[in-house]
Design a protein that fits this description.
By secondary structure, the chain is mainly alpha-helical. Helix content is 83%, strand content 0%. Helix 2 runs antiparallel to helix 3 and helix 3 packs antiparallel against helix 10.
């Protein structure tokens, strides 16, 4: 997309910020980090109220986390899934998580790529939902506040200082937020294996 396309899309819905909020909510199920950056930038540029963008973003993130738990819970009803999950590595992870239920949920929120397997496994092994619920609420709200607020204030700097370059920098930030954690994770794995 060009700069004009991004601005046109946001301006097309400027008359109804609730449509933008709905899009933010739904996009969290596709690419959560990109949705977070986009929501914060749209709020900082004035296309949507910051509070509304944050609430829709946090609601989508939390609901997505509950969905992962639910998928695991539903998968536990099938024999083929039980056979897949009954290997030694999965059992070791289950034992580790069993001793650190709350910490496991919170930690997975902050480690790239850890939420899907951790939250799904917690549902599969039927970890206590209330512990999962409270940990997800705490971790997701904290994560969203940190990332949303940081990007929101950076977005205000974009508006004031970068003018016509703001969308280029925003796209670079989104790419960095999506790919940088994966690159760091791969580098870390290589160092650990040496």
């Amino acid at each position: 997309m060009t700069d004009f396309d991004l601005i046109s899309i946001a301006e097309m819905f400027n008359h109804n910020p609730w449509i933008i909020c709905l899009a933010i909510f739904l996009f969290t199920f596709v690419l959560e980090d990109v949705a977070t950056v986009s929501a914060a930038l749209l709020a900082s540029y004035g296309y949507v109220p910051a509070q509304a963008a944050f609430i829709c973003l946090a609601a989508g993130i939390i609901l997505g986390d509950f969905g992962l738990y639910g998928l695991g819970y539903l998968a536990s009803r099938y024999e083929w899934a039980k056979r897949v999950m009954m290997n030694k590595k999965v059992q070791l992870a289950n034992d580790w998580l069993g001793e650190r239920k709350f910490l496991g949920v919170v930690t997975a929120r902050f480690i790239p790529g850890a939420r899907l397997p951790t939250y799904t496994a917690m549902g599969f092994f039927r970890f206590p939902f209330m512990i999962f619920f409270s940990a997800v609420l705490l971790a997701s709200v904290a994560w969203t506040i940190i990332l949303f607020t940081s990007i929101y204030f950076i977005g205000e700097i974009f508006v004031e200082e970068l003018h016509q370059w703001k969308w280029h920098v925003a796209v670079i930030m989104i790419i960095a937020i999506v790919f940088l954690p994966r690159i760091i994770q791969k580098l870390f794995r290589k160092r650990v294996s040496l």
